[in-house]
Design brief:
Elements (H helix, E strand, L loop, with lengths): L3 H4 L13 H10 L8 E8 L2 E2 L2 E2 L3 E5 L10 E4 L5 H7 L3 E3 L1 H8 L7 E4 L1 H7 L3 H4 L17 H10 L1 E5 L5 E8 L4 H20 L8 E8 L5 E2 L7
Parallel strand pairs: 5-6, 5-7
Antiparallel strand pairs: 1-9, 1-10, 2-3, 4-8, 10-11
Length: 229
């Protein structure tokens, strides 16, 4: 059943001509009529079907304007590295005992970081961590000796961008309460990351087929890309 609130929102906005983000942020925020601080989200459709196979993007981006979310970070490391992880702000720090808890399905965190030597043990938990997208990955900076940087990045505004099997890629650039400058900086950071990804792959045509912006409980608008990606 459609709510009274939703019925009052503009209709068929996703069929309107594409507009620049600075103009659309005004409209998207206007549609944030719930009582909570809604997320402002981007939804990409990428050109992932290629003759030489499918394109899979998986990377992390440090958003200069932050995410507005509190991320619970866990670290698996040796005893000698525990103080470094705790001082960096990790919410949970442990070694072998913590790995056993994860093995039993006790997952009370949104981000998992580990040192290279502990990754050998964690790699055996692929069936537990993999489906939840929590398996640490060297490419994403979550398997590292520099725990201070990894924890700090995770806490201060790092997001993962990853497309699904149909080429959809969704990512939040902040909250309704963010000023437009923060949101635009985060938007540009996402585009710059995708631009780098494109330069590393063999691609026929553009990487991005379409891009829409919306809020958690709002309606979507077609975004005009500020970069040719």
């Amino acid at each position: 059943m459609t709510s009274k609130r939703f019925k009052k929102l503009p209709k068929k906005t996703n069929s309107l001509p594409a507009e620049n983000i600075d103009k659309l942020l005004v409209e998207v925020k206007k549609n944030c009529t719930t009582k909570f601080d809604e997320s402002i989200d981007l939804n990409f459709q990428i050109n992932h079907k290629q003759k030489k196979g499918e394109i899979n993007i998986r990377s992390v981006v440090n958003l200069p304007g932050g995410t507005g979310k509190k991320i619970k970070v866990a670290v698996v490391c040796e005893e000698a590295k525990s103080s470094e992880a705790k001082n960096a702000g990790a919410d949970i720090v442990g070694g072998d005992d913590f790995i056993e808890k994860i093995k039993d399905g006790k997952i009370d965190f949104e981000k998992l970081i580990c040192t290279p030597s502990m990754m050998i043990k964690l790699s055996k938990l692929g069936k537990v961590l993999g489906p939840k997208g929590l398996m640490p990955n060297p490419k994403l900076g979550s398997v590292t000796e520099d725990l201070k940087k990894a924890v700090s990045d995770s806490k201060s505004g790092q997001v993962e961008i990853r497309n699904d099997k149909d080429g959809n890629l969704g990512v939040s650039i902040g909250k309704k309460s963010f000023n437009d400058d923060q949101l635009i900086k985060n938007y540009n950071a996402i585009l710059e990351s995708l631009e780098k990804e494109k330069s590393n792959i063999t691609l026929k045509g553009d990487l991005i087929k379409s891009l829409f912006i919306t809020s958690t409980m709002g309606v979507s608008y077609k975004l005009k890309l500020s970069k040719n990606i």
